[in-house]
Structures are given as structure tokens and as C-alpha cells.
């Protein structure tokens, strides 16, 4: 498992096989928080695309299944 987490010790950090550390100092307007989330989303997207490319058939099946489950949640 790959976790994007802060440098502090946490249950997620201990469970992860790999950690991508993130550091953000907050400002009055939280602009660093927004830029941190943008950077984290970019890294997450790159990891996702890389994993899909490793096994496209299985990945597509899992993506379709995820979509089905999300649709079921929307109906409840």
C-alpha cells in the first residue's frame, strides 16, 4: 500500500509499504493547503495511471465495478 501522509507517526504510516510524505504550513488564507491538495491529487492521478498501465484488463474490470457500486450508493 502507498500512503500519502504527514511525517508524524500514524496507523496509516505503519500499515503502508511505501509512504509519500507531505508537509504543509498553514497560512491565514489556507493557500498552502489548497496547493498541497492539488499536488497530492496530481501524484495520486499519476500513481493511478501507472497502476492501470501495468494491468489494463484487470484495472478496467475494477474501475467498472467501482462505478457500479457508486451508482448503487446513489440510489439509496
Automatic annotation (TrEMBL):
Lineage top rank: taxon: Bacteria
Pfam families associated with the record: SIS
SUPFAM superfamilies listed in its UniProt record: SIS domain
GO biological process, alphabetically ordered: carbohydrate derivative metabolic process
GO molecular function: carbohydrate derivative binding; DNA binding; DNA-binding transcription factor activity
Domain SIS: 1-49
Gene3D superfamilies on file: Glucose-6-phosphate isomerase like protein, domain 1
UniProt cross-references to InterPro entries, sorted A to Z: RpiR-like (IPR047640), SIS_dom (IPR001347), SIS_dom_sf (IPR046348)
PANTHER family associated with the record: GLUCOKINASE, HTH-TYPE TRANSCRIPTIONAL REGULATOR MURR
Listed name of the protein: RpiR-family transcriptional regulator
Organism of derivation: Citrobacter koseri (Citrobacter diversus)
Amino acid at each position: 500500500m502507498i500512503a500519502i501522509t504527514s511525517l508524524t507517526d500514524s496507523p496509516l504510516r505503519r500499515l503502508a509499504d511505501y509512504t509519500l510524505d507531505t508537509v504543509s504550513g498553514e497560512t491565514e488564507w489556507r493557500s498552502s493547503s489548497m496547493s498541497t491538495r492539488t499536488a497530492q491529487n496530481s501524484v495520486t492521478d499519476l500513481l493511478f495511471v501507472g497502476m492501470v498501465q501495468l494491468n489494463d484488463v484487470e484495472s478496467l474490470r475494477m474501475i467498472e465495478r467501482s462505478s457500479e457500486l457508486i451508482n448503487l450508493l446513489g440510489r439509496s
